Amino acid sequence: MSKEGQAAILVVACACGILMRGTVDEIVPIVQKHAKESHNMQVTREDVLSRARPEA
């Protein structure tokens, strides 16, 4: 949690050019859905979080 008491926003950039953002709890299902629907890939929570970066 940030000093303001809000969850940090993470960003995941897909190789296809899509930029996804959200809290940890939001970003995992967003990226998993994109990977499955757009690329027919299964990604784990760990896969997502390893690619996530804090929003600048």
Q: Could you provide a short overview of the structure?
A:
This protein is of the alpha+beta class.
Supply the key terms.
single chain; 56 residues; alpha+beta; 3-stranded antiparallel beta sheet; globular
Structure report:
- The structure is a single chain.
- The chain has 56 residues and is an alpha+beta fold.
- It is built from two helices and three strands.
Poorly predicted regions:
none
Q: Which strand order do you get reading across the main beta sheet?
A: 2-1-3
Percent of residues in β-strands? 15-25%
Tell me the number of helical segments per DSSP (H or I, 4 or more residues long): 2
| Sheet with the most strands, sense and barrel status | 3 strands, antiparallel
Secondary structure elements and pairings:
Layout: E1 10-13, E2 19-22, H1 24-39, H2 45-51, E3 53-54
Antiparallel strand pairs: 1-2, 1-3
